[in-house]
Amino acid sequence: MNVLEILKNLWEQTAFTSLQPGNYLMIVVAFVFLYLAIKKGYEPLLLVPISFGMLLVNMYPDIMAEGGLLHYFFLLDEWSILPSLIFMGVGAMTDFGPLIANPASFLLGAAAQFGIFSAYFLAILFGFNDKAAAAISIIGGADGPTSIFLCGKLGQTEYMGPIAVAAYSYMSLVPIIQPPIMKLLTTKEERKIKMQQLRPVSKLEKILFPIIVTVVVVMVLPTTAPLIGMLMLGNLFRESGVVKQLSETASNALMYIVVILLGTSVGATTSAEAFLKGTTLKIVALGLIAFAVGTAAGVLFGKIMCKVTGGKVNPLIGSAGVSAVPMAARVSQKVGAEADPSNFLLMHAMGPNVAGVIGTAVAAGVFMAIFGIV
To answer: How large is the angle between the packed helices 144-153 and 253-267, nearest 10 degrees?
Structure first.
């Protein structure tokens, strides 16, 4: 074999000879996501692995084929293992105290789920079947793990890539998407409303809460057990005070390992061949509509609560009813502080925020019950 043949063989093995224009477009998108994550700080824990998975699969598609590394990571998504473990980590990291101190927050979390169910019917009008519409609509909760979980349970894995990327992208872009909606639907006087300090929550209440929620929700909707069960187990690790090692592992080492596996595998579902389709644009659009409607519904219900309580509730905290924890709560705080720098809404917004996590999992359980999924 002469030098020219060797060079020819080497050239033919490079990615340049096999990539299509769509692959280059997706590589550019991956670079944009990396820029947003690293330079702008938009949820880097999510966007960095997702965008890098996107980059890898569009340079080397076989990495997602059977036998490829990320193929096996993705199987853990399809089997609902990684989404459930993510929920355990979220539970171990989350303080449910603000929700316990103000149970009315459940109503704001529930109101934000309106975006999910409105998107379900809209997706059907867009030509998706019932199960696909249900899987797409969960994007409205801005909850990536639940979106992946429901998509797998309903057998809609062909849409899992666009759904997961849309859900995680909107989670990352909460600081951009939500504020215009919040400001449009509220007056400056409403945004200035200061809320009373939350009452102290006892240790016993914090221990009983995950147990009671698990019993109530799983008895009514058994299919929510993988998500609600893991969420509350993680929180029980945190609040019981007797398994510090388990709490620290669930909220740190295990959580970050799972994020790496889930993020890269989700990103790797966005090969140009699978992602650059008309249905993908529909899914992205429907997800944005669902998320916007959910945000608006939370704020509008917050305005109702403001009127009912005689101005004691700042409507901005309703926007945190989507389950992007804790980003949505931080956005409520930021927008409120813009109106009045002395206003502190973060802890009040955390109530609807964690209620939104529970609400989105319940919405997924409702869809599984409707379709007879066990």
So the answer is: 60
